[in-house]
Amino acid sequence: MFKKTATLLTLCGIMVGFTSFVRIPPPQMPLLRTVVIDPGHGGFDPGTHGLITKEKDIALAISLQLGKMLQQAHPGLKIVYTRTTDIMPGNKPNVLEGIRYRAELANRSGGDLFICIHCNATRQPAGSYPVKRLVRYRITGKGAHKRSIPVYSTTWVRNTVHGTACYIWKADRNVNKSDAISRREELLDGENMGDSTGTAFDLTTPEARMRSLLYEKKYFGNSTLFGTLVEREFVRTGRRSEGLVQRQEGIGVLQATGMPSVLIETGYLTNKEEERYLAGRKGQAEVARNIAAAFKHYKDQVEGREKRADN
Ligand SMILES: [Zn+2]
After folding, report:
1. pLDDT tens digits, residue range 269-285?
2. Residue 228 needs a FRET pair 20 to 30 A away by CA distance; which of 72, 165, 243, 288 works?
3. For residue range 75-128, what is the model confidence (pLDDT) as tens digits?
């Protein structure tokens, strides 16, 4: 009797174990539900400029096309824009408040991915610029009055720097405030991020440290993955890629968003050919298509339908 009960119990146990083992898992919710698209600059802040265009306009045109393409390809996806017209997001009166608004909107919307669209520039002027070169010395005067005078010639040099890049924020636990501020000044002077630069956020608060840790653990890998996939698509189209650039500091908007975030430099407006490409409908559509294709791979990879490119 005892033996029988024991056997029965064991059998029941096995069956319970078995049924719990074969229980069909509930349908999986998509992991990537909300994408925040952030067209750089806007309103009083034009960003950089080329010979015929301003960064804020190109960034907006590409962003809107990208949103449309993503919506078409993924009907269930929620798309949030930080701006859809030529304004500083949130109609904020200055750039730093604009950055704060962008980040807060992204966080409030429960974004799963944050995509900033920008255009790059060199320190040299757009198109071509004059360069003075020493050619020779001319001797004048005689005896004690003999002098050599440099003779220069001016040549026009084309601004040839071109290509795309993806910026991600490298989380750094040891960053301290004074360091952050000094780097910020350094970066504000640079051409790249005069806009999204600026540590508008106090990195010494417990919240910021927590976010930094979380970013490092959870989001940094996915930011890297998305950036890599975007650059891969650009290269496939024949664009030059400067690759993935990790910034320790200075991309305030990326730093403040609690989600994987990438800043895409879609090309140099200071390069005449690249500016023409980015100014045209065809070029803008191609850039948007590249990012949308990368997004498709990214979504499939983070949701487990495709092998991760970084594995
Ligand atoms: Zn910019």
Report:
1. 999 999 999 999 999 99
2. 72
3. 999 999 999 999 999 999 999 899 889 988 998 999 999 999 999 999 998 999
DSSP strand pairing (34-39 vs 261-268): unpaired
CB 111 within 8 A of CB 35: yes
Closest CA to 201 of 150, 272, 254: 254
Structural domain including 141 reads 128-157
Task: Give 196 Cα–ligand 1 centroid separation in angstroms.
Answer: 7
Report how far ligand 1's centroid is from the alpha carbon of 244 (Å). 16
CA distance 249 to 183: 7
> Which of 204, 196, 199, 197 lies closest to 176 in space, CA to CA?
204
Same structural domain for residues 277 and 146?
Answer: no
Query: Is the domain of 196 the same as that of 297?
Result: yes
| Ligand 1 centroid to residue 95 C-alpha, Å | 11
Shared-domain flag, residues 151 and 294:
no
Assess whether 280 and 146 both reside in one domain.
Answer: no
Question: Are 188 and 72 within one domain?
Answer: yes
Residue 235 Cα to ligand 1 midpoint, Å, equals 21
| pTM beyond 0.70, yes or no | yes
Per the domain annotation, does 11 fall within a domain?
no
